[in-house]
């Protein structure tokens, strides 16, 4: 019979292959980038070095360019002193720094004695290096992927490099390429530091708190906790101590040091997820660690504004050029905490020109 012909199943199989090819990426979870043993050991060496040198209060040279095959030189700036604490701006990106021009205006004529910049750029992506204050501020980086522990590693790499680079770095602000400033640098600096602190050569860090979102009552907390499998996080991370929060934060120096020294929780959070749709390690590791180790040293809220009202596939609302206005900036600044928001995300790259048009008269006019 015709229906029993061997050509029919073969034809149907060939016909189904393109359909499977098109649908597979939507049905199957994306393959997570594994953290190789050499990368793990490389990072461990960096973290140990940052930890030991930070504890000894040594001052280190500025980090090398992205062409360097090793981490920043340990050549000490002998006799270098600084009477003012600095903010380390840590840019984590897998694309061009779309708003580099706006950030350039943000820093303006500010003295480099008040800030440092460090950029972790995914080496698998071609990125046009920005000039100005961003020039030669790329650190040796490794590939990153959403919903994987590689983003934790990248943030820790930035923290460790900044700890090594300058002992005056007192606050560490993690920023994405989609973030914009909502105030002038002067406003941000004086929000983070009490004015009297700028006259002191030693910084009593115990008076500072980290600005990091720490939440314990999210409806998705159970799914996120079990993303690697049921009870996999035990015994290091019991469910009642598991927390969620924003990926972007501002940490004190003592908390940055705590993060790079930590080993126990990392053994759990670096495990691959079985349910990628519930897996956001970078939103779990830092809030959980700091909540377990020093909850009173954290504000439990972030200073980076994000609009989740119409999120898509785990991504927040992306602002487009027609939405950019003075009213939007004023609205994004507003907060329920005792501090206004200092930064905001997520903005599409084509928002740059509309933002530059209102930069001087709105964004940087506090």
Task: Give your account of this protein's structure.
With 366 residues, the chain is of the alpha/beta class. The chain has a domain of 250 residues. The protein contains twelve helices and nine strands. The relative contact order is 0.14. About 11% of the residues have low confidence. InterPro entries: BC10-like, Glyco_trans_14. It is found in: Membrane. GO terms for molecular function: glycosyltransferase activity. It is a single-pass type II membrane protein.
Summarize, please:
By secondary structure, the chain is α/β, with parallel strands linked by helices. 32% of the residues lie in helices and 11% in strands.
Strand content: 5-15%
Model regions low in confidence, pLDDT < 50 over at least 5 residues: 23-29, 58-81, 196-206
Number of strands: 9
How would you sum up the major sheet?
Answer: 4 strands, mixed
Largest sheet: spatial strand order: 2-1-3-6
Helicity, in percent? 25-40%
Mean pLDDT: 85
Shape designation: globular
Order of helices and strands: HHEHEHEEHEHEHHHEEHEHH
The radius of gyration computed from the alpha-carbon positions, rounded to a whole number of angstroms, is: 23 Å
